[in-house]
């Protein structure tokens, strides 16, 4: 035989052997038949070609029919899951301490409803004054002893271990019918209906770790951009929580050098191979002072939590912190999904720009303010670290200046009251006067604004692809103005035009 033919023969033999071995490896039927992979030594070229043809044909058949998931590994095949999540499917675990608990109870009373919210508060011990059950706050559980775990972060607090271990202790209680475990601090206010809507996007039978990082760039550099900050709160799906509870103690030993409880949970989840699912509605609130700039330009995502309430000023003027948060909840209870949602409308005839943060405040700007400017946050707050000068801190969002001179600021109207009607919700806002300023004639006498909107009921598909709503100002106003919030037209643009 000539050399080229020899080479072709061996090439054909190798190809056939490869295809056969592939078929044998991937098909149980063929493996069971124990087909031999050795080919007779003295096959002629033509017979080899025929054999190759047959094997190729089998190979194609195999690709077509036997392994239908050739292009989609089985793990990617989507599974239909039950979207009907209710408040009862969420179990909250609130980390508190015997010291802070008496002071923080009023915050819990704002968002916790004994009849529909399931929650436990974890304390280091029960003080005498807390003995006896108070049904207006979540029942108290005393955390297990954690003194056997090491803690080596200099200047940190050992309680981080106890708080991290709440994750295990709440799962080990084996409460019935839980789909999500939600963790937060005693100074975290949760917006429970929005959490239900948001978590319903994810399948609790899969592994999910849902939360958000800090608003402060520096805090994220220090801890991690991919960590759910514990005060802002985070949710862990049932199936993941079960596994995490089993392995957490070994992580607590390995991560003794970390500062906080959230970092311990985050590290353990990372070891399980799970990353953060970012939901921008969770707010760690790593800032101080006046939160107005943040609350009046909330992302197009439901409000899920607010934290560090003691570190910020009351969110409404002339009220205590708890009063102010309770006032916000008058709107939350009327239309939870719409709370803080920003809508912008323009009045071209008077050259005014109006920005509504529903249930909280309305701002009226003189002139044509661009939407993008209105969506960025006015810097009304101060950095979390007191040592950092205001200019040197960085945030995770775009900022614009908030003028020092109150007369250069927009005119602000704060929520006064909310009246739910059938289908519609009427919310009333009153002008906040800081100083007498020269204002455009059109709004010189304006004292009250009434906003008419429909209860925002988003289904899962709308939750996944949200769109900002539009608004109209009813023509001619003097002392009071009426704004109507509605769905935008298909190609309607939010801009000033005649
Ligand atoms: C909670 O349930 C109790 C008894 O079922 C009822 O009397 C009470 O009015 C309910 N409270 C609220 C806020 O729904
Ligand atoms: C409070 O309630 C919990 C369970 O609901 C119970 O285990 C505990 O004994 C009660 N404590 C007191 C002081 O009544
Ligand atoms: C502040 O609140 C008190 C009572 O809550 C009221 O009497 C007073 O007029 C308020 N002040 C302003 C400036 O609204
Ligand atoms: C607007 O309100 C002021 C009082 O605030 C009143 O004096 C004025 O007449 C009103 N203008 C119109 C056109 O109603
Ligand atoms: C408002 O500003 C935008 C862009 O800045 C411009 O395109 C638009 O014409 C302005 N509208 C009016 C009525 O001035």
Tally the helices: 14
Overall pLDDT confidence? 89
Overall 3D form: globular
Coarse structural class? alpha/beta
User: Low-confidence parts lasting 5 or more residues at pLDDT below 50?
Assistant: 27-37, 67-78
CATH-assigned fold name of the largest domain: Spore Coat Polysaccharide Biosynthesis Protein SpsA, Chain A
- Calculate Rg over CA atoms: 30 Å
How do the strands of the widest beta sheet line up side by side? Answer: 11-12-13-17-18-19-21-20
Number-wise, the strands total: 21
The small molecules bound here are:
2-acetamido-2-deoxy-beta-D-glucopyranose
Please report the distance between the alpha carbons of the first and last residues: 89 Å
Q: Using the coordinates above, name the CATH class of the largest domain.
A: Alpha Beta
- Beta-strand residue fraction: 15-25%
Count of folded domains: 2
Helicity level, as a percent range?
Answer: 25-40%
| Main β-sheet description | 8 strands, mixed
CATH architecture of the largest domain: Alpha-Beta Complex
Structural summary, described in words:
- This protein has 498 residues and is α/β, with parallel strands linked by helices.
- It folds into two domains: 91-278, Alpha-Beta Complex (Spore Coat Polysaccharide Biosynthesis Protein SpsA, Chain A), CATH 3.90.550.50; 289-294 and 313-486.
- The protein has 14 helices and 21 strands.
- It has helices at residues 3-26, 28-32, 45-66, 101-111, 159-164, 166-172, 192-199, 217-222, 238-254, 261-271, 292-295, 321-334, 371-375, 460-464, and strands spanning 90-95, 118-123, 140-142, 180-185, 189-190, 209-211, 234-237, 277-278, 287-289, 305-306, 342-347, 352-357, 361-366, 377-378, 381-383, 399-400, 411-420, 424-432, 448-454, 470-473, 480-486.
- It has an eight-stranded mixed sheet with strand order 11-12-13-17-18-19-21-20.
- Strand 11 (342-347) and strand 12 form a beta hairpin.
- Helix 9 (238-254) crosses helix 10.
- 35% of the residues are buried.
- The model is unreliable at 27-37 and 67-78 (pLDDT under 50).
- The structure holds 2-acetamido-2-deoxy-beta-D-glucopyranose (5 copies).
């Amino acid at each position: 035989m000539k050399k080229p033919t020899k080479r072709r023969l061996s090439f054909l033999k190798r190809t056939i052997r490869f295809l056969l071995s592939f078929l044998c490896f991937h098909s149980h039927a063929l493996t069971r038949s124990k087909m031999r992979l050795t080919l007779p030594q003295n096959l002629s070229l033509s017979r080899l070609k025929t054999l190759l043809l047959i094997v190729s044909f089998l190979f194609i058949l195999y690709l077509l029919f036997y392994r239908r998931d050739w292009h989609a590994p089985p793990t990617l095949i989507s599974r239909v899951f039950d979207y009907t999540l209710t408040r009862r499917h969420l179990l909250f675990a609130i980390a508190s301490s015997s010291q802070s608990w008496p002071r923080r109870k009023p915050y819990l009373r704002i968002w916790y409803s004994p009849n529909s919210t399931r929650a436990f508060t974890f304390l280091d011990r029960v003080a005498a004054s807390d003995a006896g059950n108070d049904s207006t706050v979540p029942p108290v559980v005393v955390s297990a002893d954690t003194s056997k775990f090491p803690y080596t972060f200099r200047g940190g607090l050992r309680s981080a271990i106890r708080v991290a271990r709440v994750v295990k202790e709440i799962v080990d209680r084996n409460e019935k019918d839980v789909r999500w475990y939600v963790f937060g601090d005693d100074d975290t206010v949760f917006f429970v209906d929005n959490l239900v809507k948001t978590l319903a996007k994810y399948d609790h039978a899969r592994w999910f770790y849902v939360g958000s990082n800090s608003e402060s760039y520096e805090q994220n550099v220090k801890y991690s951009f991919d960590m759910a900050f514990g005060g802002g709160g985070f949710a862990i799906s049932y199936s993941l929580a079960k596994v995490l509870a089993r392995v957490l103690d070994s992580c607590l030993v390995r991560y003794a050098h970390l500062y906080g409880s959230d970092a311990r949970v985050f590290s353990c989840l990372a070891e399980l191979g799970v990353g953060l699912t970012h939901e921008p509605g969770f707010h760690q609130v790593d800032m101080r002072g006046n939160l107005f700039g943040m609350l009046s330009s909330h992302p197009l995502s439901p409000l899920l939590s607010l934290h560090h309430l003691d570190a910020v000023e009351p969110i409404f003027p002339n009220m205590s912190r708890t009063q102010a948060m309770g006032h916000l909840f008058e709107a939350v209870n009327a239309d939870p999904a719409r709370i803080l949602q920003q809508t912008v409308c323009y009045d071209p005839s008077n050259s005014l720009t109006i920005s509504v943060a529903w249930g909280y405040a309305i701002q009226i700007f003189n002139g044509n303010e661009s939407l993008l400017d209105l969506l960025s946050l006015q810097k009304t707050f101060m950095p979390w670290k007191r040592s950092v000068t205001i200019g040197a801190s960085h945030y995770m969002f775009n900022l614009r200046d908030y003028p020092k001179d109150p007369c250069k600021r927009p005119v602000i109207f704060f929520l006064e009251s909310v009246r739910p009607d059938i289908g519609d919700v009427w919310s009333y806002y009153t002008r906040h006067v800081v100083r007498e300023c020269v204002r455009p004639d059109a709004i010189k006498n304006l004292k009250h604004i009434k906003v008419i909107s429909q209860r925002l009921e988003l289904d899962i598909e709308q939750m996944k692809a949200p769109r900002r709503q539009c608004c109209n100002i009813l023509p001619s106003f003097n002392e009071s103005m009426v704004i109507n919030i509605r769905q935008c037209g298909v190609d309607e643009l939010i801009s000033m035009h005649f």
